[in-house]
């Protein structure tokens, strides 16, 4: 779900899953995704197949791979937003695991016949997973895309960040940030939060290659002996930013340009109504702790279901666990 985008049909399916197999609520995560709580193991396959019915999946929702790519959620806010948002989908697709194991296990692809070797097997693992190989990454990896002056993606806390740089109404490219992360382990003084470093600028056409090579470096040099120290921020901290830039440039075959000036003025969501460049309206709704549910005097979950059934809006999730209703026409 790159950038947190959902159609009304997809929202209805999420609501159905929560009602039928979950605890009756939906949880909007801080990475622009939907979580289901209370699903028992025996209902898991039905849940995943129901998601697949509306072209959604949980591939790379966990594990030592790149997770959901975050992006400022509303492409209608400006011409730059409209140009940036598709790159979240391209980046997500570019870094997905290639194995068909998910489809074989949960979607009955092939129904047990003619299954190909999945990652972790012998000989052809690198062929099936040219990026992740047999052992995947040392730990999970997180990517965000921010559009100044709003830092609603908290870009400097991501493993890899892309900050959109505008030239008038044209997307010139992205500043590249590496090595962010907020986590630490209690009682381990060698673990710590870290803000990302800005290492340069790339054009839109270079973005996918830059991301791929960054993940390659983490795959090859990340700590695989101690999972408490295996996040990408520790790779940057231990080897140094200059070493990393040199390694990245060598793998890319070109050098990043100097970073462009950037100013962020806010990291919060703007609640209420805004009109997009397409003339349609966007409503940003507060969701307490990201939990969609009905409660006395405030039937939020029911209201959102009725909106989805009406076809009056699309749904987008913010990085602050709130919800946008988009493409609302003025009538």
TrEMBL record:
<dbReference type="GO" id="GO:0046872">
    <property type="term" value="F:metal ion binding"/>
</dbReference>
<dbReference type="Pfam" id="PF03460">
    <property type="entry name" value="NIR_SIR_ferr"/>
</dbReference>
<keyword id="KW-0560">Oxidoreductase</keyword>
<comment type="similarity">
    <text>Belongs to the nitrite and sulfite reductase 4Fe-4S domain family.</text>
</comment>
<dbReference type="GO" id="GO:0020037">
    <property type="term" value="F:heme binding"/>
</dbReference>
<dbReference type="GO" id="GO:0051539">
    <property type="term" value="F:4 iron, 4 sulfur cluster binding"/>
</dbReference>
<dbReference type="InterPro" id="IPR005117">
    <property type="entry name" value="NiRdtase/SiRdtase_haem-b_fer"/>
</dbReference>
<feature type="domain" description="Nitrite/sulphite reductase 4Fe-4S">
    <location>
        <begin position="90"/>
        <end position="254"/>
    </location>
</feature>
<dbReference type="GO" id="GO:0009337">
    <property type="term" value="C:sulfite reductase complex (NADPH)"/>
</dbReference>
<dbReference type="InterPro" id="IPR045854">
    <property type="entry name" value="NO2/SO3_Rdtase_4Fe4S_sf"/>
</dbReference>
<keyword id="KW-0479">Metal-binding</keyword>
<dbReference type="GO" id="GO:0050311">
    <property type="term" value="F:sulfite reductase (ferredoxin) activity"/>
</dbReference>
<keyword id="KW-0411">Iron-sulfur</keyword>
<protein>
    <submittedName>
        <fullName>Uncharacterized protein</fullName>
    </submittedName>
</protein>
<feature type="domain" description="Nitrite/Sulfite reductase ferredoxin-like">
    <location>
        <begin position="1"/>
        <end position="52"/>
    </location>
</feature>
<keyword id="KW-0004">4Fe-4S</keyword>
<keyword id="KW-0408">Iron</keyword>
<dbReference type="GO" id="GO:0016002">
    <property type="term" value="F:sulfite reductase activity"/>
</dbReference>
<dbReference type="Pfam" id="PF01077">
    <property type="entry name" value="NIR_SIR"/>
</dbReference>
<dbReference type="InterPro" id="IPR006067">
    <property type="entry name" value="NO2/SO3_Rdtase_4Fe4S_dom"/>
</dbReference>
<dbReference type="GO" id="GO:0000103">
    <property type="term" value="P:sulfate assimilation"/>
</dbReference>
<dbReference type="InterPro" id="IPR036136">
    <property type="entry name" value="Nit/Sulf_reduc_fer-like_dom_sf"/>
</dbReference>
<dbReference type="InterPro" id="IPR045169">
    <property type="entry name" value="NO2/SO3_Rdtase_4Fe4S_prot"/>
</dbReference>
């Amino acid at each position: 779900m790159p950038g947190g985008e959902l159609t009304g049909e997809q929202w209805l399916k999420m609501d159905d899953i929560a009602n039928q197999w979950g605890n009756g609520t939906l949880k909007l995560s801080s990475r622009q995704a939907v979580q289901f709580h209370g699903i028992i193991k025996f209902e898991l396959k039905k849940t995943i197949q129901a998601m697949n019915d509306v072209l959604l999946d949980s591939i790379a929702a966990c594990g030592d791979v790149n997770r959901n790519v975050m992006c400022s959620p509303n492409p209608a806010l400006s011409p730059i937003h409209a140009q940036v948002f598709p790159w979240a989908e391209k980046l997500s697709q570019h870094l997905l695991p290639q194995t068909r194991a998910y489809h074989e296990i949960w979607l009955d692809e092939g129904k047990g016949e003619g299954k190909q070797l999945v990652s972790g097997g012998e000989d052809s693992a690198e062929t099936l997973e040219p990026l992740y190989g047999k052992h995947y990454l040392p730990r999970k990896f997180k990517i965000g895309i921010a559009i100044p002056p709003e830092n609603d993606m908290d870009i400097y806390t991501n493993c890899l960040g892309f900050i959109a740089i505008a030239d008038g109404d044209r997307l010139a490219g992205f500043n590249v940030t590496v090595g962010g992360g907020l986590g630490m382990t209690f009682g381990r003084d060698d673990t710590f939060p870290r803000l990302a470093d800005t290492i340069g600028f790339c054009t839109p056409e270079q973005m996918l290659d830059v991301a791929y090579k960054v993940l390659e470096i983490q795959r090859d040099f990340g700590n695989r002996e101690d999972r408490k120290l295996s996040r990408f921020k520790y790779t940057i901290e231990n080897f140094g930013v200059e070493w990393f830039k040199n390694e990245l440039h060598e793998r890319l075959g070109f050098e990043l340009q100097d970073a462009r000036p950037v100013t962020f003025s806010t990291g919060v969501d703007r609640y209420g109504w805004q009109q997009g460049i397409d003339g349609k309206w966007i409503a940003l709704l507060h969701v307490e702790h990201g939990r969609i549910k009905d409660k006395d005097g405030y039937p939020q979950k029911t209201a959102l279901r009725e909106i989805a059934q009406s076809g009056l809006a699309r749904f987008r999730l913010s990085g602050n666990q709130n919800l946008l209703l988009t493409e609302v026409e003025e009538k």
